[in-house]
């Protein structure tokens, strides 16, 4: 098995709530990690959030992976900086949306939701998947939300529409590429995720979730699997210990 120190993980959305927990845990396990964000100040915050002793293993790149040109530019900058990518974790999107019921919304609102949740996931997958596709020691992990299966509460409809489109996209990839060498997996989170200072009842601590995702990436065994996490205990049983 390739040692973690020889593995380079691209964390798409790695500056976000979910992604930053994943990035910290991967670095703590000895992986090298690269993060692309549109916002340099978010990348700087990420740099001071990770363990100081691992900071040298973190590469940050300012870029927009939601457009074909932006993603291509980011890929060139990434390869120049890190040389190769062995693993990809994609947690693109946003944390929460409760803009109101559909009749109060504009087409622009729906376009933003689809762009942020689905189009960035698709464009970045199309751009970066070729880097890992043909290697059985490589992984591509999508982090998705159970919000795509039901309305979480009144006014969150477009969150459901966007999250559902990402769930469907992951299903399509599993079915269109049944034989692909790279380990292609999806993690579906059925509850809120937050940093320790913003935890609410039933929420997952992003640090704890990050440890679970890092264990899944490290293990590199299953493929075409959907791992469902609905409560903190699931992180242990589903991700850390690897039961489906
Ligand atoms: N948070 C939760 O409670 C929760 C629960 C269940 C599932 N999830 C899943 O986790 C995903 C991420 O949630 P989160 O809470 O981490 O959201 P977040 O804090 O808003 O982070 C999302 C990240 O996606 C990045 N992003 C979006 N579009 C991009 C683009 N075009 N180019 C580059 N980066 C882009 C953002 O980067 P910038 O820095 O460029 O803005 C940001 O860092 C969700 O979409 C959902 O599938 C979250």
From TrEMBL:
GO terms for molecular function: 2,4-dienoyl-CoA reductase (NADPH) activity. Keywords: Oxidoreductase. GO terms for biological process: fatty acid beta-oxidation. It holds the Pfam family adh_short. The keyword Cell membrane does not apply. It comes from the Eukaryota. The keyword Transport does not apply. Gene3D superfamilies: NAD(P)-binding Rossmann-like Domain. One of its GO terms (cellular component) is mitochondrion. PANTHER family: SHORT-CHAIN DEHYDROGENASE/REDUCTASE, SI:DKEY-238O13.4. This is Peroxisomal trans-2-enoyl-CoA reductase.
């Amino acid at each position: 098995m390739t040692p973690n120190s020889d593995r380079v993980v691209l964390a798409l959305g790695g500056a976000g709530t979910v992604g930053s927990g994943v990035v910290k845990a991967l670095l703590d396990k000895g992986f090298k990690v690269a993060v692309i964000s549109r916002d340099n100040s978010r990348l700087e915050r990420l740099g001071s959030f990770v363990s100081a002793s691992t900071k040298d293993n973190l590469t940050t790149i300012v870029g927009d992976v939601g457009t074909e040109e932006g993603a291509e530019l980011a890929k060139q900058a990434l390869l120049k900086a890190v040389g190769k990518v062995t693993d990809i974790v994609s947690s693109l999107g946003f944390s929460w949306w409760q803009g109101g019921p559909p009749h109060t919304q504009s087409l622009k609102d729906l376009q933003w939701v689809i762009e942020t949740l689905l189009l960035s996931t698709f464009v970045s997958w199309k751009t970066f998947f070729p880097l890992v596709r043909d290697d059985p020691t490589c992984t591509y992990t999508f982090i998705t939300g159970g919000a795509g299966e039901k309305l979480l509460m009144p006014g969150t409809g477009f969150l459901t529409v966007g999250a559902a489109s990402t769930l469907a996209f992951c299903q399509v990839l599993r079915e269109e590429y049944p034989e692909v060498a790279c380990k292609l997996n999806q993690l579906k989170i059925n509850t809120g995720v937050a940093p320790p200072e913003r935890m609410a009842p039933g929420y997952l601590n992003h640090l704890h979730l990050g440890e679970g995702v890092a264990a899944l990436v490290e293990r590199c065994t299953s493929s075409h699997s959907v791992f469902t996490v609905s409560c903190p205990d699931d992180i242990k049983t589903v991700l850390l210990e690897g039961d489906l």
